[in-house]
């Protein structure tokens, strides 16, 4: 990979990792000049077990779903599209559960 990067400035080392690029878009209902949605692109070469496992772990998918992704990736290149609302209508809160810094915080999603 290093040779490809040094010779052509391309390849795996030419991006910031699994989510090397994003798309920013305005939805049809958006009347302002800046995007309200971001789509991150996760690219995984055939049989990219380590990177795919890391991404699926971060997404906290059920084990049976993760297994299906790994099965597909054992034979095929995969692109995951991960949409994110940049200005959601719902807002939530993260609160401290106690004065103990090792306690998990209380997360109130505030979904509509």
UniProtKB/TrEMBL annotation:
This is Uncharacterized protein. SUPFAM superfamilies: FAD-linked reductases, C-terminal domain.
């Amino acid at each position: 990979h290093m040779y490809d990067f040094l010779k052509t400035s391309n390849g795996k080392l030419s991006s910031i990792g699994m989510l090397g690029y994003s798309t920013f878009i305005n939805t049809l209902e958006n009347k302002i000049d800046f995007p309200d949605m971001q789509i991150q692109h996760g690219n995984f070469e055939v049989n990219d077990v380590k990177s795919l496992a890391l991404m699926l772990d971060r997404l906290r998918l059920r084990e049976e779903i993760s297994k299906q992704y790994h099965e597909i990736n054992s034979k095929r290149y995969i692109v995951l599209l991960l949409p994110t609302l940049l200005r959601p209508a719902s807002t939530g809160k993260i609160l401290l559960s106690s004065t103990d810094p090792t306690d998990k915080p209380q997360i109130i999603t505030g979904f509509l």
